[in-house]
Amino acid sequence: MEDTLLIGDHLLVDKLAYAPAGSISKYILPYEDVKRGDIIVFRYPVDIKQTFVKRVMGVPGDHIRLENKNVILNGHKLIEPYKIHKTEYIDSYRDNFPSQPNFPQYERGQAMLENNVNNGEIVVPQGSYFAMGDNRDSSLDSRYWGFVPRENIIGKPLIIYWSYDAPTSALANPTIGLDHILDLAQHFFTKTRWNRTFRLIRGYPVQ
């Protein structure tokens, strides 16, 4: 999701943002529907022990394809001020999607290509969402592992309550190691990205 979110951003997540599928509580509490352009937090479908953050680009029934890095949604080219491209070359699969994979494909991604392509476009099935990262040239997203099931969605991020410029390896470790504690003690004030503290996270309408 760079540069919308950075490695080391700590997020406050609203887990009550979306009504659980099939729940009558959505008629009682002020729940939202998952919308195109929402940034969502969800359990990674390939390994639900991992948590991912991506932007919803397609909701059930949508038709999606990419042409030379541009997203075509339901026949219209999207204007996306939030997206970042960090490579100039065109990848035959990543940037012209869906197409023949040029790498060993995830099983879920292969199933999507086999079962959900119509006239050269991905058709998002019921109960699922198509999610992409804003750092389009380096994002492990629905192009590779398929759709996000509705039940995998945890909520939506609201605010960055702390951002720390720590090594990726330290942040990926589920336990806090001694090296990370020492790094915090020595560099808390210099490595904290103060300009990102309490920054609100907002989606962008995708139509």
Task: Walk me through the topology.
Blueprint: E1 9-14, E2 39-43, E3 51-58, E4 63-67, E5 70-73, E6 76-77, H1 107-115, E7 117-118, E8 121-123, E9 128-132, H2 142-145, E10 148-149, E11 153-163, H3 168-172, H4 178-191, E12 199-200
Antiparallel strand pairs: 1-11, 2-3, 2-11, 3-9, 4-5, 4-8, 5-6, 7-8, 9-10, 11-12
Task: Summarize it.
Helix content is 15%, strand content 27%. With 207 residues, the chain is α+β, with helices and mostly antiparallel strands. The strands form 2 sheets. Strands 1, 2, 3, 9, 10, 11 and 12 form a 7-stranded antiparallel β-sheet that branches.
List keywords for this structure.
single chain, 207 residues, alpha+beta, five-stranded antiparallel sheet, 4 helices, globular
Radius of gyration: 18 Å
Net shape: globular
Oligomer: single chain
Average pLDDT reading: 88
Structural class: alpha+beta
How many helices does DSSP assign? 4
Tell me the span between the first and last alpha carbons. Answer: 20 Å
What pattern of helices and strands is seen along the backbone?
Answer: EEEEEEHEEEHEEHHE
Helical residues, percent: 10-25%
- Which ranges are low-confidence, i.e. pLDDT below 50, for 5 or more consecutive residues? none
